[in-house]
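User: Predict the complex.
Assistant: Input components as received:
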Amino acid sequence: MTTIPELAPEGELDHVKIGDFATEAGASIADVTIAYRRWGAFAGDPHGANNIVVIEHALTGDSNAADWWGDLIGSGKALDTQQWCVIVTNALGSCKGSTGPCSPHPDGKAWGSRFPALSIRDLVEAEHKFLQELGFEHVHAVIGGSMGGARTLEWSLLHPEFLSAACVIAVSARASAWQIGIQSAQISAIERDPFWHGGDYYEYNKAPREGLAAARRIAHLTYRGEQEIDERFGVQAQRDENPLGPYREPNQRFAVNSYLDYQGDKLTERFDAGSYVTLTEALNRHDVGRGRGGLNKALASSTVPTMVVGVDTDILYPYHQQEHISRNIGNLLAMAKVVSPIGHDAFLAESRQMDRILRNFLALSAPDGLDLGPMYVGDEYYI
Amino acid sequence: MTTIPELAPEGELDHVKIGDFATEAGASIADVTIAYRRWGAFAGDPHGANNIVVIEHALTGDSNAADWWGDLIGSGKALDTQQWCVIVTNALGSCKGSTGPCSPHPDGKAWGSRFPALSIRDLVEAEHKFLQELGFEHVHAVIGGSMGGARTLEWSLLHPEFLSAACVIAVSARASAWQIGIQSAQISAIERDPFWHGGDYYEYNKAPREGLAAARRIAHLTYRGEQEIDERFGVQAQRDENPLGPYREPNQRFAVNSYLDYQGDKLTERFDAGSYVTLTEALNRHDVGRGRGGLNKALASSTVPTMVVGVDTDILYPYHQQEHISRNIGNLLAMAKVVSPIGHDAFLAESRQMDRILRNFLALSAPDGLDLGPMYVGDEYYI
């Protein structure tokens, strides 16, 4: 009989050591930790049919999915924690509890520039090791948008036996050249910050905040549709500022620039520039075709029932990229389009539509329902 | 009888002083020079019906339109210099012969940060003064794309009596918030270059090349459609470089980044960072509604027969913006769509389509042809 894995208390951050990790490109990271949270009780067989849904966060997201997907995860919500055991890790390379550039190297100093480049596959492999470390050899589904969607797609190709269904949202089968270009512009904004110190700024008492904020401002404009931003801000001046004065003054701003400054500043308070560079680079390297005979062969080889979701106004991952996945993937469960002026971020913002999409996905992925017996949480209690 | 204006030799750069210039926002620039070129002989009345077509260049363009619109300007081409006298100035604030931030202030040093902020209207007013200085009170048409389109639209509202027709290409009636955001990201990239010195780098022996190149890389991604860039570069590595190595190395690039580096570097060799900031800021301030009762009232007040041209895949000035102009402008001559994967730059690159569009525009603008008598060039000769 299989042991029921011991899981983190409801909604609380916990950490799991997965040992040394070898990257796809051949570097290694010693003594890796993966942080995660869990909502809802476990039910079923850790090695077979069970009620685990793994959610994959986006670039600067984290394991606290009940925050950033608050309308969608919880009792009675689409990802109903009375029915599903939701597990969300912090990605390898990030800075919210999992090992990343700001974590201590075995020598005690931060990894910094010694932290290797990661691919999306590396993020998935680390998560796979994490789930195995917990005692799982199977989950019901993996769901994710943007960088989370890239990871979900790679999950379905790296470990098809590990999941019963996948929901791939607002992403492509590989980085497009445009994405690589605009993402590299963000990396460059950080690299050009004098406080970046080649990635080893942790030894200094100042972080490359300006560079990270500049990167985020650019990124934000790819996350939001131009019509939505224009409807909100147009050419309005920021209150008490005059962007039309006789001389250009950076502190006399249009409202949209004040908004973008806020988005940039806010990120510097919660995110590490090293992680931003590492994970952005992982997105540059996203390519499910690598080593699998090309993009369409890779997609065609997929056996996991996969739902593909896109946003009609997404300029970062345009809808034709999700159509491309849908047309070529080996086992298409369904396709859905979020209709919104918001652009890429609609998968985070359009809760009503996402609610219906995720409910539909789970219904399609378990058409006859799940009959899994009692629900456990760790070794402490069961319902 | 009106004197026939003396014009620059065919295709050669010439300079005209227009005196002191007061900007829309209330600053002044002493002793302004406007540089220009001319192709084709003049015919008609400098104060009435004549064969002058004024072409307006884009942000980093210049008066040498026979270079950047080489397929469209010349004998037998759409802008047939056997029939039309084509005049192209360098915009106020630019760095190709007209007065801009790198020009000498009356004190002998460069204007630098003392150069005022300009609006699109300022660019037009300076050109208006220039044409009057030459002796003209009327031209047949004004044509321009992107920043040139913004100027063309402002021409039709500031001096409707001065032109018989306008062709407004790949632009909007005002900056969108998204444009302001992405354009400000470019300005910020330059400002963050330590060699920018607040705009007064001319006194130093180093220019903010890194910042200007970074700005251009971002800009270029808004000029080109993502499908076109992706078809060319995809996730290819630059020859002899490996962007997938175990550690991220900025000199191990994807092909698209090498291409963008080239675009950035090339601009630093031909363009001044101060002019780039000044003209980008002018684009941020583009708003035909300002002081005219709002956008649609301003457009409705237009009396100049205007052709509006857009590109279906333009992400910088999306096609719905040209539809907006067309729906609201007081005297719509025609509308045309360039169909291209290239995006915004299609108005420069899709010569075949632009040829037909410009021929159509000129035919519509002079349906009965022009009967103007002999063609003059300066006071030297006539045909």
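The first strand of chain A starts at residue 14 and ends at 22.
Let me know if you want any component modeled separately.
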